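Notes from hallway chat w/ T.B., transcribed later so I don't forget. T.B. wanted the structure written out for a chain they're using in a teaching module, and asked if we could keep both sequence and structure tokens in one place. Agreed to drop them here.
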Amino acid sequence: MRRLWLIFAQAVTISVAALFVVATLKPEWLRGNGSAAAPPVTILEAALSPGEALPNANPDAVSYAGAAQRALPAVVHIYTRQAAKVPNHPLMNDPVFRHFFSTPERTGLGSGVIIDPQGFVLTNNHVIEDADEIEAVLNDGRKFEARLIGRDPETDLAVLRLTDAQSLPVIAFAPADSLAVGDVVLAIGNPFGIGQTVTMGIASALGRNQLGINTFENYIQTDAAINPGNSGGALVDGAGRLVGINTAIYSRSNGSRDADAPSGGGLGIGFAIPVSIARKVLEQIISNGEVVRGWVGIEMREITPEFAQSFGFPSAQGVLIYSVLHGSPADKSGVQPGDVLVAVDGQEVQAPREMLDLVAALPPGQVTAFRLLRGKSTIELKIPVGRRPPTTATR
């Protein structure tokens, strides 16, 4: 009897071992011939009610790949070289001395936008300012030398021309004032020199001014990431059309500053020059090599309701003229400090920026009507518009 139990135990052990091996290596041998293997149940399926279909993982995906693909080829990387200023020394005329003590160079980087198949490029003035050599690199790797056609420090814009370039990809311009707060925008450029990069955000605000960045300010504010190297690059809409030129970022320590200035990183507040301004500057530079603006020689301050009440003005309408440049068109025409400017060429003025833009748009030499309040009297003066003096201020 003991021998039979031993044989039975051995047989059971061998059978269990064989079943384990088969279940592990050939589980299909254990299934019925007419039944298919049941797929594993996922956590998502387990959460669904019986008979409920598994949802599409991406039914209505939102992608801006098309917009990026349309705009990317027309955005270039800009590299500049500038010989460092060193004291003049007679030994620098010695070729041997120059060989061993060569003049060091400073390099910079930024971005630009091709706006013409023959190689005109729009960028920021601060990207190419004081550069001795400028090179543009296209998204496809082609490299071109670039020469400066003209620049406008008061809007921080400049126009370059790529040497021996033709049939280049060109960016499309969005209609003026087509951008609204909340619209999706893409910032394209070369941040930190790492290569072509696209970031996404929205138009956070329009018409930002009094930031202390430039003379003429009317910025698009965006939370699309803008970093050093993005300056001069494109801000495009959801269709890949140019709506602005990326220019500056906000820094907690230093306020608004060039996007290419060193900083600890963006705070989700970037600024771009609207395409409406960029286009006007571009056209003048290509036609004349410079931007010509009207000027009458006055400085203004905003009249707040509190200011109007304190100084007895009838209302907060207009802007206060607190300074008149000696010998300027305004001075020669009889404008006095303390006058309140209420209209230029029939258009009412509510803020200093409005007056600055209105006068700048007037052609030099044109005689224009300025309506003023002097005390309790309204007077109208005819002032011949002068030409705004050029600025060479470095920001």
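Follow-up for T.B.: The chain has three domains: 65-86+94-162, 184-288, 294-387. Might be a good example for the class.
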